[in-house]
Design a protein that fits this description.
By secondary structure, the protein is an alpha+beta fold. The chain is 34% helix and 27% strand. The radius of gyration is 25 Å and the shape is globular.
């Protein structure tokens, strides 16, 4: 069999993690850079990951009663300014349209940074009675945020996402919705992306602009930095009061609705790369891999080899996404390309293999190789796809758990951040002054207040005063 040619064009993540990330997304053909600052072109490999994820998540949304809608991408300035905290939080990132054709606009239009105000305007028009509630809406779209510093998937001027927006008759229903969607986010990260996450509530300082409470799922990258991977928000009735969204309840009394919003974005592809990738490129979980199995014929010019490769493809295609690499490149180059693109399983088949009624299977995640009978290849491939998905999650979960450390004092917190990285668990008194001091001194942020987490003392890591809240701290993307 031909030897696997390692890709020397990918920088080692130990030497330069940022360059490794850039090398991987380029070599794996996920994106290309566009002529617009901060915007990227999603190539087929990159978009297909999002598409597969989107299809599965959208199915879950519909199963929980949500309907898809689409809002305009332009927001009149007067509409955006109706909720003061909201507009203040987004002001630095908003892109504005000031001309249409050859004429100046009478009112500036914001290019959608998020759609709360648009949904509020719509709800004010369509909700009159408790019989109109709840409204469980979601939209798949792109948004624009004029970021100062950009990096593909992690932070771009335009990115793809879903944003759910729901309206409810009671506070209890809205809070239940907020937490239910957070659980759904945790589930899809685990079962589709093989990403373990920490689920919890954001501090008031870190919550979404205009929200009463914000909840998040946080993941840990190879380099020890955290990534906010999804958020859900409980808005209370603040937006409803600002936009005059009222309904008559069962007692014929006029009430304001309670709202939520929640979102996942293509940022998750960045998490996928940085949690699972290695120095040879991508490592993709089977459930979101554009190609789950690549069949590489050896000595394909010899009689029967390509025929057998396509015969195997036909069998495997009943349950997997399969391709045959019948290009004129050498087998070693084909192996390398499959590795860089993170294809979960590689099947090697040559004349001798055909004679012996067998094939070689290689796992991308571990590099292990196995010989299997062609009579059993369907059963074996199906088994390995399931095992790879499970093993990748378990490996990432171990990395997360191994890199959560306790700190009881500010000195301990500083030592961990500077010398070990990862996520630090510490007690917090709840004062914003302490949160700000930690952020300014150590360049870390509170990631969230985890659910059901045991206390590690009763004193604030910063001021030493009484504390009963556990907070996770980390450097973050």
């Amino acid at each position: 069999m031909a030897k696997n040619i390692k890709n020397q064009a990918i920088t080692s993540m130990e030497d330069d993690f940022a360059q490794w990330y850039t090398d991987v997304i380029k070599k794996a053909e996920l994106v290309d850079y566009s002529s617009v600052r901060g915007c990227v072109i999603l190539r087929p490999n990159g978009y297909r990951i999002w598409e597969l994820f989107q299809q599965e998540v959208d199915k879950r949304f519909k199963e929980t009663g949500h309907e898809n809608v689409y809002m305009p991408m332009f927001i009149p300035e007067s509409l955006l300014q109706k909720e003061a905290d909201h507009v203040e939080g987004f002001a630095p990132e908003v892109a504005w349209v000031t001309r249409g054709g050859l004429e100046d606009l009478q009112e500036r239009l914001a290019v959608r940074p998020t759609s709360e105000t648009l949904f509020c305007e719509h709800y004010a028009n369509i909700i009159q009675s408790h019989r109109d509630l709840p409204k469980l809406y979601n939209q798949w779209c792109s948004v624009v945020r004029w970021e100062k510093s950009t990096r593909p998937f992690l932070r771009t001027a335009e990115f793809l996402w879903q944003e759910g927006h729901t309206a409810h008759a009671t506070e209890e229903e809205a809070v239940e919705e907020t937490l239910k969607m957070l659980d759904l986010y945790e589930e899809v990260c685990k079962n589709l992306m093989a990403l373990p996450v920490i689920k919890g509530k954001k501090t008031q300082k870190e919550k979404f602009a205009g929200a009463v409470d914000t909840y998040s799922i946080e993941s840990l990258m190879h380099d020890g930095k955290a990534l906010q991977s999804g958020t859900t928000h409980f808005f209370g009735d603040g937006f409803a009061k600002a936009f005059g969204i009222q309904f008559t309840d069962k007692n014929n009394e006029l009430k304001h609705i309670f709202q939520t919003s929640w979102g996942l974005s293509t940022r998750l592809i960045g998490a996928l790369i940085m949690v699972h990738g290695d120095n040879n490129g991508l490592v993709l979980p089977p459930k979101v891999a554009p190609t789950q199995v690549i069949i590489i014929p050896i000595a394909q010019h010899k009689d029967g080899v390509l025929d057998k490769a396509f015969e195997i493809k036909a069998k495997l295609s009943k349950f997997a996404r399969v391709n045959v690499d019948d290009s004129d490149k050498q087998p070693g180059w084909k192996f390398n390309e499959a590795e860089v693109k993170g294809i979960p399983i590689r099947v090697e088949i040559g004349p001798r293999d055909i004679e012996e009624n067998k094939a070689i299977i290689a796992r991308r995640d571990t590099g292990e190789k196995f010989t299997v009978s062609l009579d059993d290849i369907e059963k074996e491939i199906e088994k390995y796809l399931e095992q790879i998905q499970k093993d990748m999650y378990e490996k990432a979960l171990k990395h997360l758990n191994d890199n959560i450390r306790d700190a009881h004092t500010l000195d301990e917190l500083e030592d961990i951040i500077k010398n070990k990285s990862g996520i630090v668990k510490a007690m917090w008194c709840g004062k914003e002054e302490c949160e700000t001091e930690i952020k300014d001194k150590l360049a870390v942020t509170s990631r969230n207040i985890p659910f059901d987490e045991n206390a590690i003392g009763d004193k604030c890591v910063c001021c030493g005063e009484k504390a009963d809240t556990v907070v996770y701290w980390a450097k973050a993307y």
